[in-house]
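LOG
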Amino acid sequence: MTVGVREQPRGADSPRPRPGARPGLVGWLTGLAVLAGVGYRLWLLLHAAPPTNSDEATMGLAALHIARGEGFPVWFYGQQYMGTLEAYLAAPVFALAGGPSLLGLRLPTLALYALFLLLAWRLTLRLTGDRWFGLLMVALLALGSDRIVKNQLIAGGGYPEMNAAGAALALLAVDLATGRPGRRSAAAGRPGRRLARWGAWGFLAGLMLWVDPLVLPYVAATGAVLVVFCRRELWGAAGALLGVAAVLGAAPLLLHSLLTGRNPLHAVLAASGANASAGWPDRLHGGLVLGPGLGMGFCAPGQCATWQLWWALALPLLLAIAAATAWRALRIPGPAGTAAVGPDAVSPRVAAAARLALVLAAVATLGAYTVSSSAGLTPVESSRYLSCLLISLPALLWPVWTVARHGLRPAAIGRRGVGSTLARSVAVVLLAVTLGTAAHATWRAAEAVSATQAAEARHTELVGTLRQLGVRHVRAGYWTCNRLTFASAEQVVCAVVDDTLRPGFDRYPAYRREVDSAVAPAWVAPAGSPLAEVLDERQRVTPGSLDLITIEGWRIYLPR
């Protein structure tokens, strides 16, 4: 297959500044884009957006228990998978702040996003050497639709960490493959620094195995790059250090499995919908039509308009073109040296191999999601499983950027002229539409902030009212309970009930035991909910059994 994308030498059009040189226009613009991305998300956090939920509150409660020294959970409460790294990151913030808060819980996730943005920029430069393309990647990743900011900021388990870890794994793999022994390259660094990179790669790989297996395609793909370029080194001290570091990173998972005899893989398969059933038409629609637009930040909150589904058509083409161009660059024999000068020089073959690895990881991620029942049963919410695709954006859009700047190779069209001009125009339009669609989705997400802030204010009033009433124990629905307990710093303890008032799923069983031992727990329900209707019916059937207190958005039922 011949693909007519011109592979420009790294650095040919964007020379690197000398060490210590003042940053040029592209450097200042990149810095502004980074500040805009972080600033936008900080503004969201200060306005209680994106909206929180009881799952995030569960992670907050774990952080509270860690900060108090009351427990050190390995897994997200109520399940045997998804590590609690976010809770351990937030615990020091709670300890320093003197108590839990939603902002304190999310500050580490904001830091993880900033780290991802910088790593993605650095990775782009290493793979392409084009600082203007690096600016484009930073600008695109600075935008944030509803689904994107939820993945990046909500401390619900795994998602804020995965992108930063995946980008770091890819960057470390490129550094190690470029600076392998026997090559004269400034990237090789000192032997001690090189061993540290091997250890860092192994530790991150093991850590992600504990935190969330969704990033494993990127662990496998970047690991394959190391095997191809550094296989001799892996038989020595570097491989041993990598193995030890990986075991250390996955230590919580391994120790828990050894002590309990439980296999976390079974829990992961159950959570993915392996025990449920969904038809293939629904899976394909959710995984290949709705999923890419929602999961990669091109859709409005909770829905994809028909015109926003264009990305579902573009993504397979981009994957195919990116894979073909990377494979072609990998197969072309070339000099042993690098294609650019300076400390960031990367072998063209290493860069091509890394881009191909990122494309294959994206294909594996998209395929695994599509074949799961989650894609067919809950496509809007489960599109978060595609969050790692953002790591592959530099590899996906690099061929488009190359055509937009340089046109097609003459061999691909027979001659320069109309064909090359048309291709450049199509590439420019594609990049512009990509940025425009993501910007529109970001604007729509920002529009919803006022409603989210108002809902959080009503929840704060609910917590304050319960405290004023002296209510210590309540029963409520799943999406109310742990959020209420966390917001009150466990001054109000809640046990879950379903819409028929029967016991529900309590992620932290100690709360149910405490509520069951209380004399007369209250009931709390959102206004207009099925639970509120059942409790209102009880009032009508047995008048005088409950005292009703209403505040905006909520109904509190106090037993007499």
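LOG (cont.) second protein
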Amino acid sequence: MPGAAPGGDTAQSPPDRRPVTEPPGGRASPAAPTTATDPADRGRSPAAPTAPTDPADRRGTEPPPTSDLATSPATGRRRAGLFRRVAGRDPSPGPGATGVVPREPGRGHRRAGPVLGTRSPAGQPRRRPAEPPTTGTATRADATPLEEADLDGSGDPPERPTRRRAILAALGVIAAASAAALVAGLPQWSPEPADPPRRLTRGEVERLAAMRVTNQRDVRAGVRVSVGTAAARTELVGWVDWGRPLVYLHVGGPGAGTERGLVQATDGTVVLRPATTAAPSPAPPPLVPPGDHWRLREPPPTDGVAAVRDLLLGLRADRTDLVSVQARWRGRGTADGTPVDILETPFPADPPSAPAGQVRLWLDGDARLHRLEGRLPDGRPVTVELARSDRPTLHPVAALGGRAGLPRALTDGETDRLARLPARLRALRGATVTVTAPLGPTANLRGTGWLSWTESAAYLAVGEADNPGRRTLLRWRGGRVARAQVPADPAAEAPAAPPLPPPAGLTWSAARAPGDDLDRLLGAALRAGVAAAPARSAVRVRGDRTADRSVDVIEVRASGTTLRYWIDRDGLLRRLELLTGRRVWAQLDLTPGRVPTLPGAPAAPKPRRR
């Protein structure tokens, strides 16, 4: 009987072999179970006697060493189907096929061996799958390698693709129904957070307790603050100096209102330089602020600027805080690329306008605050973002004392110039003066005039920044002051020099002793030409410049009054400052030189005789 030779040629089978009995059509009966366990006997009919077990008689049908892979029932069924599909491609099969898919020379199959049924795990014989009718068997030369076999089911019987398509269609319907149910349930579904809130760890408690001390140690930071929402939103951009303390901000946004402009503020003082135009979003203010048009403001504690001032300055402390038991960890995030923990806690400080309720703090591993969210006492939301690397040296305006210095004792030369000051002023006889005195929210005064040290007299025209149509004439002589109201040009930015001689017909107030801070400032300037300031209580605050001259700023505290003398290197007084009761500095700038004859104060009324 012909058989399959290893080399792919048709060879004569041994004489003791019997051909496989097949029904008409060249195929074995599918109902006949396969009972042979030896690889050489797996192609025989059940009725055929068992072939000899001599190894020499199994040439060409012995499975390769990897035939153990075919012992799986699933593998056997898959290979049987593969063999049937491959065998069906040969239109003229040769007789005596053994049902073996051999190796193809030069192809290297992953699996090779007899594609036959195997016994089930229970030892029962497994039936061969049904095969399509063939007229013969395929030779080795016609066998297709396993890598090139059709494994996608395209060679299955017609009923199998139909069944597969039905299954896929059913799965598609199920997926569509699931997606519809998910979409319908989205509005009512809220996912649980990945990390639920929890109590603080020991390390987080220590960082939160040290946050305000860290701020004071770092001294300064850039800030961007947003208060309110939509059309009522106010934006503030600038810096905070926790060491001085001082905030310097540019205020803008649709809800800024009359606070729009540049703002500098300390613990109890707010000065504003109103903006001439309304910018949609504020830019950082100039590092060196303008020197003019600053006005004192006293906003209520819940006002936007005052509340932000208290909030920012409340972020400093000289000792660690007690951490509330209500503090909670809310999650993690990043700020300017720095990993942070989001902590929720009551505000650690208690200024009048501290945020109400809980605030959220974005705190890094070094206890540095990067972001704060909360609500002001009036309910408006507030967000503070801190730029920890933006730390320039701030320059307070003159009303807040000017830039910081390093106070020290006077040198011999400075002491000598301070002692010789009265004589030099009397020798100059007088000076032209300019006054800038922020004495109150409605008394931001500016004035121009003259003073005479030889006559102990002064004559000025003073106006209010918020009421440019009003002028006051001030006459000082012999320690007594009188005032009179005169009309003025509303378009004039600063009051002009007072008229000489004074207009006739003016109603002057009765002469009286100096009373307010402006009177005190003028009185101190006139006394500087009479007696020297006590050097034992004087300190040099810093060096500065005014009127293109270098000066020494010398601070003297005596009799409850704090004065600063700006004395140039020639020993002349260029500016005198007085610390007012509102903790701002009023300035009197002097230009020594000739002055006109000044009118004296009206004589005091004589007492009536009884």
